[in-house]
User: Which sequence fits this backbone?
């Protein structure tokens, strides 16, 4: 059934909270080695979908398949062991611990040795540009620093699939420009990346394939330039009838 | 690695220093003070494993204390065990109770004040049960016969007990050093600081917290067994009463949560304070408790990270305004 090149397959996943259908019948397939993005207006259900994939929430219906293995509703720590790690949109550092200790927690997934985990933390910190802040407390980092830490900790688990939930949100343009090469280099190192992102500049420059989620449903997919021209996508972001008005404006101009 | 070396070195220094005390003085008052201070250190350290490193505030550590104490007494009285054999078994028993309570509480995701209440409830249930069943001696309690010999863990002098409790405190220090320098400890502190983030990177919080309760319970159980050997008597109020739980948690909190030396310093400071106020104001009953309470409030207000946090403390007026 599963295509061999799909690392993650999502089949008809739905989840409702009371009367609110947060995610409805979403299916997508993430090819191995790709850098893909999930976009959509606020409240579209992107983070909920991530929670369903990573095991923080259980889907009401549908299946999640990682490398041909059904992991629907499996606990997050088991998914991390299988190679799928997520980050959080609202950064979740271990505030009382240093950057090195924070990253080492991730590194411990594949080594019981404290020395090795701490050494690996230093290497990972280098990859995300935190090398000079290793002994700072996580609570003393700037927002940009915390976003990098979030990324580093996930990366230290040596994931096959990295789910990045808005690692660029809240950063200023300079910080975003600094962060984009970091994400790109992670993907280039062979890690499959699926990212939720609002910063279109980043999505356009990074993602090979984009899914658009609105009101819990997938409304479009394709290359970044395709989806940004898609009338339904424009309407989802800018309101009903906007696509038609924009087209008329273009014609009359 | 360097941190581990430092920890081992400081533990060794502490043990050598304290172990030497009985060679310099035979004063019963001094040795008794040292023994009871070390006892307070032990229960504070036991609590610190779960409360300080795991962030799970138990209000019922007397549960493990009483389990260890009663096991130590029953094993000798009813089964004729040697106390040196009974003590490790009492620790295992208390650890098993820890596994049971921990698994039950964390299985249902109890946190914060709910966890505190459930542990308190468990300790109370054990207290009431031990008041009514015959094998714990019910309200009368259990009394060990006096048979002074090293083989019987009843030392003629206080020095023997000082060395025994020092051994247990050293064990607790080693467990703490292990938590500071191991994967398990890193996972435990990660769960304390942010459970969701820990889960996302492969930590099983249930597993980690339950094991912490096992370690914490086992250490607390050793304190119970020690108590029975010293005072040769245990009853439900002493064993499962909440004052032991409170003494354990206050010592750890005042000293500094999740640190190696905090609980030792905290327990020592509080013990010193309690003795001092009792001796100075003993003729005015109650006033020593008032002073004790005021000092506690002051410490909690001005040293939120405990006495161990003093090493990194800078008064507000010294800080740069940034």
Assistant:
């Amino acid at each position: 059934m599963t295509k061999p090149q799909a690392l993650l397959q999502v089949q008809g996943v739905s989840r409702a909270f009371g009367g609110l259908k947060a995610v409805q019948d979403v299916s997508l397939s993430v090819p191995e080695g790709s850098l893909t993005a999930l976009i959509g207006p606020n409240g579209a259900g992107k983070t909920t979908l991530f929670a369903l994939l990573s095991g923080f929430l259980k889907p009401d219906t549908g299946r999640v398949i990682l490398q041909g293995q059904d992991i629907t509703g499996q606990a997050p720590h088991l998914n991390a062991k299988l190679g799928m790690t997520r980050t959080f949109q609202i950064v979740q550092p271990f505030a009382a611990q240093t950057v090195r200790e924070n990253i080492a927690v991730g590194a411990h997934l594949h080594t019981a040795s404290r020395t090795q985990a701490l050494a690996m933390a230093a290497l990972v910190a280098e990859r995300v540009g935190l090398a000079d802040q290793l002994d700072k407390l996580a609570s003393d980092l700037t927002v940009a620093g915390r976003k990098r830490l979030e990324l580093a900790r996930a990366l230290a688990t040596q994931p096959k699939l990295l789910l990045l939930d808005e690692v660029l949100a809240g950063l200023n343009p300079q910080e975003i420009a600094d962060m984009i090469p970091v994400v790109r280099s992670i993907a280039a190192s062979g890690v499959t990346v699926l990212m939720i992102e609002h910063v279109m500049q980043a999505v356009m420059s990074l993602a090979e394939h984009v899914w658009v989620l609105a009101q819990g449903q997938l409304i479009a997919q394709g290359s970044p330039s395709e989806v940004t021209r898609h009338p339904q996508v424009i309407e989802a972001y800018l309101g009903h009838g906007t696509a038609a008005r924009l087209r008329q404006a273009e014609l009359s101009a | 690695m360097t941190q581990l070396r430092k920890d081992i070195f400081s533990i060794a220094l502490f043990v050598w220093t304290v172990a030497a005390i009985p060679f310099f003085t035979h004063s019963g008052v001094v040795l008794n003070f040292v023994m009871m201070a070390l006892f307070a250190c032990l229960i504070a350290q036991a609590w610190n494993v779960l409360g300080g490193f795991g962030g799970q505030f138990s209000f019922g550590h007397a549960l493990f204390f009483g389990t260890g104490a009663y096991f130590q007494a029953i094993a000798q009285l009813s089964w004729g065990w040697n106390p040196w054999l009974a003590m490790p078994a009492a620790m295992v028993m208390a650890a098993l109770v820890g596994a049971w309570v921990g698994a039950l509480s964390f299985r249902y995701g109890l946190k914060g004040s709910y966890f505190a209440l459930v542990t308190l409830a468990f300790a109370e249930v054990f207290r009431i049960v031990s008041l009514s069943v015959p094998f714990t001696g019910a309200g009368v309690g259990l009394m060990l016969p006096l048979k002074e010999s090293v083989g019987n863990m009843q030392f003629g002098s206080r020095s023997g007990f000082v060395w025994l409790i020092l051994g247990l405190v050293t064990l607790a220090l080693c467990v703490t050093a292990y938590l500071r320098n191991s994967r398990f400890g890193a996972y435990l502190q990660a769960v304390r600081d942010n459970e969701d983030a820990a889960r996302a990177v492969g930590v099983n919080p249930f597993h980690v917290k339950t094991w912490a309760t096992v370690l914490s319970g086992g250490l607390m159980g050793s304190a119970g067994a020690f108590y029975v050997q010293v005072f040769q008597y245990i009853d439900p109020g002493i064993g499962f009463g909440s004052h032991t739980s409170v003494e354990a948690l206050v010592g750890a909190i005042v000293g500094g949560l999740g640190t190696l030396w905090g609980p030792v310093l905290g327990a020592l400071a509080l013990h010193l304070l309690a003795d001092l106020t009792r001796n100075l104001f003993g003729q005015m009953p109650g006033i020593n408790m008032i002073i004790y309470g005021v000092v506690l409030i002051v410490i909690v207000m001005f040293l939120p990270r405990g006495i161990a946090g003093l090493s990194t403390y800078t008064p507000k007026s010294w800080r740069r305004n940034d």
The first helix of chain A runs from residue 46 to 54.
